[in-house]
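Late entry, glutamine complex.
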Amino acid sequence: MTHLRDLTIKSFHEGLLNKDFSALEIVRATFSHIENRDKEIGAYLDLHKDEAMTQASRVDVAVAEGGDIHPLAGVPIAIKDNILIEGTRTTAASKILKDYSASYDATVVKKLKETQVVFLGKTNLDEFAMGSSTENSGFQLTRNPHDTERVPGGSSGGSAAAVAANMAVAALGSDTSGSVRQPAAFCGAVGLKPTYGAVSRFGLIAMASSLDQIGPITKTVEDAIILFKAIRGKDNFDATSVNPPAGGEYRDELLNPPLENVRKLRIGVPKEYFIDGLDPMVEVAIRGVINKLETLKLEFKEISLPHTKYTTSCYYIIMPAELSTNLARFDGIRYGTRNEGREIKNLIDLYKSNRGEGFGEEARRRILLGAFVLSAGYYEAYYAKAQKVRRLVARDFDEAFKDVDVILTPSTPTPAFKIGEKVNDPIAMYLSDVFTGSVNLAGLPAISIPVKKYELSDGELPISFQLIGRHFREADILGIGQYYERL
Ligand code: GLN
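Prediction complete; structure with ligand written out below:
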């Protein structure tokens, strides 16, 4: 049977139709691999083994009957545990939701169920998606499969580690400031953050609603396209979801665009991304990517995104403001575990007890920050000002996109860092998504792609580059990505 390492969505589909293996065989092999490997990695919070086996058998029946088989049918995938699957536990890796069972499917899950995909289980994350290392999970550590002393990135660290360790063929994550792209980069996987609004957020436990977007983590760009096509589109349950305007990516064939179309794209390289603190190895790797792409006769140009340096400060005002609002519902009354066994004197005391026990340190820090920046005396000075800065960050991109079609940057300033290295220094941790956050502030699509796909030598850590496109021009970044992968 095919080695799990060699399985992509595409090769799974081909092998399934070819009868090289059955869906059940692959799903069973994946679970036995998870039973061994995940003891060390810690990617999964919950496994849905029975449902997965039943679903795989259904796909095998469909294959035997010889009907139309969707490219995702039978593919074993993992779902970040802040995305709801009806009737199963969904915790967002927070103790406050440790007993919560989802009462409906997220729209992305509903759409994937229609393709007959197989859900293996739910993956670990930083609590409510707050973090860059998955160390903020209320339940467990997740380790980087390339070096288990290092973090897998975050917040979708479980999803990225599962894919990288062949414990899933693909996964879904969510990205508010880099949480799909940064862990994908640290684990050597592909991570796509779609344009804001391209994918419904209904059934995603909200972190910062104006920034959150669900996206695929996969082994190849081609696989990211297959998953993206299955989950995108306007949804009446998410008023911010849209079908793209004319000229958007729906018009374009995403898979295998002709090289002459891709060659027309001019690529900008922002000088502000090659700064102090950028690991020299990352810089060399990114220059190597540019050289490689130049062999396709793609044209490069230095550009400027002058407000880049304000991105992180701006994000750490807007995000906590939205987050403290979104997390207000977790009080142990409407949602969340009630902290039993304590004497409660009054309502405030009840809130304090439930929220104080249920939320971890980072969640509490950000709730406080958010409440502060929204408070009457400080709203103008912080929140209102940050909204203006957000506009400037977005305008930088508008200006740049007058000149170029796609922007290329490193995905992260360094490769995966050591477990424990930044956990007590929130600012250092926050800076690990300096290159990904402005994309969310501007609502743009972006993809992180490993510089080297297969030829990592022993002890070498994955390094990745990021391609950023215009709104709804996923086709451009995915087109270049596919050609890069073939080089
Ligand atoms: N590092 C970011 C944060 O901690 C990532 C958030 C995200 O994209 N979900 O807020």
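The chain is about 40% helix and 10% strand. Will revisit in the morning.
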